[in-house]
Amino acid sequence: MSETTRGRWVGRRAGLANRVAFAFSLISMFVALVVSGATYIGTNIYLLQEREASALRQAQVDARIVDAALRDDVRPGKALEQLPVIEDNIPLLLIDADWFGARADLPPEEIPEALVEAARTDGGAQQRFEASDGGVYLGIALAVEGAVFVDLFPLQTLDTVLSILGGVVVVGTIIAFFVGGLVGKAAGNRLLRPLSDVADGARQIRSGDLSARVPIPPDPDISAISVAFNDMAAAVQNRLERERRFSANVSHELRSPLTGIVGTTDLLENRVDKLPEREANLVRALSPQVRRFSAMVLDLLEISRIGGDQIVQLESIEVGHLVDDQLLARNLPVSLREGENFAMMLDPRRFERIVGNLIDNAQRHGGGVTRIGVERAGNGLRLTVDDDGPGVPAEIADQIFEPFARGEGAHKDGAGLGLAIVNEQIRLLGGTVEVSETPSGGARFIVELADRSLR
Fold this sequence. Notes:
Shape: rod-shaped
Structural class: alpha+beta
CATH class of the domain at 311-454: Alpha Beta
Number of helices: 10
Number of strands: 12
Radius of gyration: 48 Å
């Protein structure tokens, strides 16, 4: 199975919580179906047997009364009139080929011949049959004095009761399916809550919050995942802090000798005209490398301080004017800024570094700044910096914000720390940064920051 096919197949699979809920639904439906089905079958057999037993007793009593009346030479019609009045039975008497007591709702012709013949030969029989009108009857035939007594008992009421019971079984099974699904969903969510906490913690760490930890659930079987995650996060945080301290210490220790080197280089550069040609060429080659080294050390020192210094100094700043100041500081026209000027609560030092580094990145690697957009975005601002370069390929759009990352075609005089500083400063301000493409094919950096006074 290819990676693409496997990814599509996994994407179509239901989540674990949904699968647990569906399994609970099936189990609940199966249990309900077995229990209710067994109850229905048992109730059906019991009610039918009870109905047949009570009907047989009633028919035997009626047959004895009719038999006694016939022995006393009572007419067949009068003999049937001596029977107790019961609404749900139909007593009939067959003498020779004549029926007595017949009712219009059930003609005697519909009584099975086999039932009558069994009564004549065996003395009695019973049979269930269906009439032409769809009614179901239990017929009991008994031999009496010179005749056959037939007692018919309608089974419609029993069928209605059983139909209602069957409906209850079906509805109960459906309810059990949905109730089982709800219980399964709740159980699945409860089981997956620690995994959701771990996922949230991983996202926080990915966004730069290395202090993120997840709560430890009380269940000892599940808590091991959260404990392992917290231990891993603590180990990662400690290691990164050690690396940050190491970078800060190295950068700090390099500043003093580097300051001397830069001063000496500047002094030599000022006197390069008085030096021999060979030494002058060496000074000209050394000077830009020293400045690049100095800028890299300062950037390393700053990026190491960003992670350790989480304090944000909030002030009300004029966003448009601050962007203009950064353009003027680099001898660029303020006409490059588009959009309104408005006040926001931000850290001016961090915002200056964001704007300045984005401008420097565009000037150094993107063919120059073509536009800086400043606009409101909800309760915050959206800053866009467009350049005239070749753009950033989509496959490295996230990598360029990492330290020492440089895209293809970037100038070799950069250390690849400018965008990493931008990313860290934006993270501390609670914003986001992404890179896209301008209509002309250049790179467009989009920064979104919220007004910190609303937090």
